[in-house]
Amino acid sequence: MTYSREISSSDTADEQYVSEGGTLSLSNLGQKELLLAMMEKGAALRTTARGYSMHPFIRDKDVLTISPLKNQLLSVGDVVAFTQPATGRLVIHRIIGRARQGLVIKGDNCFEPDGIVPDEKIIGRISRIERGTEDVKLAVGKLRSFIAFLSRGNALLYFKKNIVLLLHTAGNALQRVQTLTVYRGLVKMLSFRIIISEADEDDMEAIHGMFTPDVPYRRRDENPNVTNWVAKRNGKIAGFVQNVFHPKANHPWAGHWLFSLYIRVRYRGMGIGKMLTEKVIDKAKEQNATELLLAVFEDNKRAINLYQQFGFEHITHPDLEPMLAEEKIKTGRRRIVMRKKLV
Predict the structure, then answer these.
(1) Same domain for 196 and 143?
(2) pTM of the model
(3) Burial code of 3-18, b = ≥16 C-beta within 10 A, e = fewer?
(4) Does residue 172 sit within a domain?
(5) What is the tens place of the pLDDT at every residue in 22-67?
């Protein structure tokens, strides 16, 4: 894990001085030089972490306080900022053991350690982790040595893998329940309040995290040909959809498209898919579109049934067929094109 954007510093290790306003974006080398200067002054540095090598204990965009060592002895389990001997880069990982030549250090989400790091390469120790308005104490708390023990034999990674498998199984069971008429009737009776709105930049960052959690989010310029909607319940994103217009230059995808309809598993069966689909149809009509297209996997029967309720029909799109056929060869799944006539 690396870090970037120094957001505050302190003249002493115990007090924090938060600068009002600006943000610094530095290269890895620049980050390291800044941190070395702060540690030499005996001052703590508060900064934003980027990356996933310490997931789940330190997450991308957590705020870390890096404190100077001040002759304090490091112990197994401590999370430290150090210069990686092989590359000279600044890295933040956990101490998992000691060797004659130095410390054995490894990321909580990595299969291989960084190797043996000499004591003089250690720059500072992570003393605090903030996530939103809360302090995250597990990573650097009393259980840090136990986390290091699990990490040494990769038990931590295997545990995470089994948890993911368990959640996947539970998700499949929930999806079966959500198809039941009784469940849908109960949802309607309880009248869960869903709010549909155009997505802002924070919403898009959250959606990016759902689809591609291992890729850092980067803000993009607004595209006038794309409208994004989110469905929220109690302020939490439950679903997402896009209305996309591709001009003729985007052949063979030219036209008005419904893209990326996605409902989080726990919120399925509440009619959110219908509400989001209606938004895209209404938007396409506002744009004077004569038809609305979409591409859906042919084995996604639930989505196909939803689209058919709105009058979408399976069509053959000659310009896209070669691409979709090649996609099936590569991925094992085939998408079909559906169309709804608007006039």
Answers:
(1) no
(2) 0.53
(3) bbbbeebbeebeebee
(4) no
(5) 334 456 777 788 888 888 888 888 888 888 888 888 988 888 999 9
